[in-house]
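User: Could you go from structure to sequence for me? I need the amino acid at each position, not a summary. Structure tokens:
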């Protein structure tokens, strides 16, 4: 692995990044129950990989705090303390808990739920360090030798408006070898205001992987994956861990789920896709 990815993008010898899912306490304002030990271990595990991934994407929900209380900032601070264990860039997507906590919430100036403390703290504490002012953004990562290009497109389904809609269409229309879309809610969670309209836009363009969270487990269907096991209370039989995305020498993308205690991949999850998202071997 050579090259690097900064807050604004970069160039590397091959694509290699991790995915960290939902991280929050079991109940509202339970900051004392924040899963610090789990998220500390996950970021330490990613940092300890050899080679080390170039960057990490987060699938949302870094807090579970009342919008009328004062626990949002302390919870995000705990996440950022764990995040500091990884020396590279982390590109977080917004979750519903970064708005009001409800899946159908819609934050931002001019939107029904407005600017909540949860939303403001997410923007300032998590996106400020990577020079982003909107909850939706794109990062470009290209090959050091110019042989391929990629974009990581972060969609904010709980801050959806016409501006984001136009931005998403324009961003996806720019041709790249690989396109990774990161959004908190998968298509099934269609009460989130931006899920159905962003799905309609995404369907018009090539897609390598769609990366989501929201449900506290991990799974994949075709080239759409869910990684939500970053410390929030688990659903199903999943264990905590993180996703790993690697570009193979033939250009295919290999996707794995890594257990945070053993460091072992789950063979039942492992799959490979082409740059255009077709399952392959």
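Assistant: Here is the amino acid at each position, in order:
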């Amino acid at each position: 692995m050579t090259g690097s990815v900064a807050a604004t993008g970069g160039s590397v010898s091959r694509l290699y990044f991790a995915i960290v899912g939902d991280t929050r306490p079991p109940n509202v304002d339970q900051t004392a129950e924040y899963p610090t030990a789990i998220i500390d271990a996950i970021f330490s595990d990613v940092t300890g990989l050899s080679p080390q991934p170039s960057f990490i994407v987060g699938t949302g929900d870094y807090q579970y705090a009342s919008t009328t209380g004062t626990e949002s900032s302390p919870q995000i601070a705990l996440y950022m303390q764990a995040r500091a264990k990884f020396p590279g860039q982390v590109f977080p997507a917004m979750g519903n808990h970064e708005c009001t906590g409800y899946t159908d919430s819609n934050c931002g100036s001019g939107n029904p739920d407005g600017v909540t403390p949860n939303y403001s703290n997410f923007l300032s504490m998590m996106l400020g360090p990577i020079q982003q002012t909107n909850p939706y953004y794109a990062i470009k990562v290209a090959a050091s030798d110019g042989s391929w290009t990629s974009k990581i497109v972060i969609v904010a389904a709980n801050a959806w408006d016409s501006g984001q809609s136009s931005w998403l269409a324009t961003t996806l229309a720019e041709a790249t070898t690989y396109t990774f879309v990161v959004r908190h809610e998968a298509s099934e969670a269609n009460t989130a205001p931006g899920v159905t309209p962003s799905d309609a836009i995404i369907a018009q363009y090539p897609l390598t992987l769609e990366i989501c969270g929201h449900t506290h487990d991990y799974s994949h269907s075709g080239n759409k994956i869910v990684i939500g096991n970053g410390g929030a209370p688990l659903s199903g039989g999943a264990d905590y861990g993180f996703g790993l995305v690697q570009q193979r020498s033939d250009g295919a993308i290999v996707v794995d789920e890594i257990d945070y205690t053993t460091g072992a991949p789950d063979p039942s999850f492992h799959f490979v896709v082409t740059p255009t998202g077709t399952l392959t071997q």
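One structural detail worth keeping in mind: The mean pLDDT is 97.
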